Amino acid sequence: MDSFNSDRATDRFLPPRAEGQSRFPIARIARVAICAVFYGLFYFVQQVTELLAPLVLILGVGWSALPHIAGAIGTSAAAADPQTRDIVTHVAGTIPHQIVVGSHIVTAASLVTDGLLMMAAAALCATLAAVAAREM
Hints:
- By secondary structure, the chain is mostly helical.
- It has one domain.
- Helix content is 73%, strand content 6%.
- The chain is built from 4 helices and 2 strands.
- A hairpin with a 2-residue loop joins strand 1 and strand 2.
- Keywords: Membrane, Transmembrane, Transmembrane helix.
- The chain crosses the membrane at residues 26-45, 51-75, 115-133.
């Protein structure tokens, strides 16, 4: 009996050999290289946004809550000592509502929005990195 059986299950899933086919597939190598570059780019953006997004979000929430906390302290300090109330009121009044950095205006609400958008960007980049890894 002949040991070679071309009807084996493993042979059915192999692509047919084409005559003149190159043993060095340039198109496949280029595709893997492009996917690897995109994977690295998406993964880098994901890591940076996962690091910065919580910090920016917490900074924005803290900045928006700070005047309310200072006002609550000022209200409770009014009964204790008028001089303390004046100091707390002065400190609460010095908290800026916006900061201008170059041509950018930074507010508490913009920091919260930026933090949420960075979290969305991290999720999108994680998805795109997974797709690029699958294509490699």
